[in-house]
Specification:
By secondary structure, the protein is an alpha+beta fold. The chain has helices at 5-83, 131-150, 168-179; strands at 90-99, 106-115, 119-126, 156-163.
Length: 188
């Protein structure tokens, strides 16, 4: 009743069948996992496409809302500044751009520029301006000053930020930006 060749051979064959079944099961699981990974990749790509489309739609909506705010502000802005003693003979609405001379890249953009022989007011229009918008506008005004200096234009440059919803923090930031001599854009 010891081990015989036939018994050993049968054990090898049984072991071989088990290994074959395990190998087939492993191959099947690998193929299923690969299929699931492809499906996951497809879904990720679809979600990424939807996110990109949504971002574009939100961007277009934001631009349209900004355009609406500009259209609400631009028609009356000259009168508002005339009350303050300015008398403008030129209004440039709809994104006046300053480009870098070397690269041609846009370095500053203004929603509205009001100009006369003595002054230029760069106006930024936001639905709900933030303190960062104030800082960005001061930077744009500095660029405008440099641009005008290069052209020998010595008119005073002022900044204005118009908003539909203006928080106290933003009002404070605007007043602070306009009252700090080292940061004041109206240099001349």
């Amino acid at each position: 009743m010891g081990l015989t060749f036939e018994k050993v051979w049968a054990m090898f064959q049984e072991s071989d069948r088990r290994m074959q079944r395990l190998s087939e099961e492993t191959d099947r699981k690998i193929q299923e996992t690969a299929r699931q990974m492809q499906e996951t990749d497809r879904k990720i790509q679809e979600v990424a496409r939807h996110i990109k489309e949504t971002d574009q739609q939100i961007g277009r909506l934001g631009n349209r809302f900004g355009e609406l705010a500009e259209h609400l502000v631009a028609p009356n802005i000259v009168q508002k500044f005339n009350v303050l003693g300015f008398h403008f003979d030129e209004i440039s609405a709809r994104h006046q751009v300053i480009k870098d001379e070397r690269s041609g890249q846009k370095i500053a953009e203004f929603d509205i520029l009001l100009e006369n022989g003595e002054a230029i007011i760069g106006v930024e229009v936001k639905a709900k301006p933030s303190s960062d918008d104030v800082k960005d506008h001061v930077r744009r005004l500095r660029i405008l000053r440099l641009n005008k200096d290069k052209k020998g234009d010595k008119r005073r440059i002022y900044g204005a930020l118009a908003g539909a919803i203006m928080t106290d923090a933003v009002k404070t930031a605007i007043l602070k930006a306009g009252s700090m001599p080292s940061r004041r854009p109206a240099i001349r």
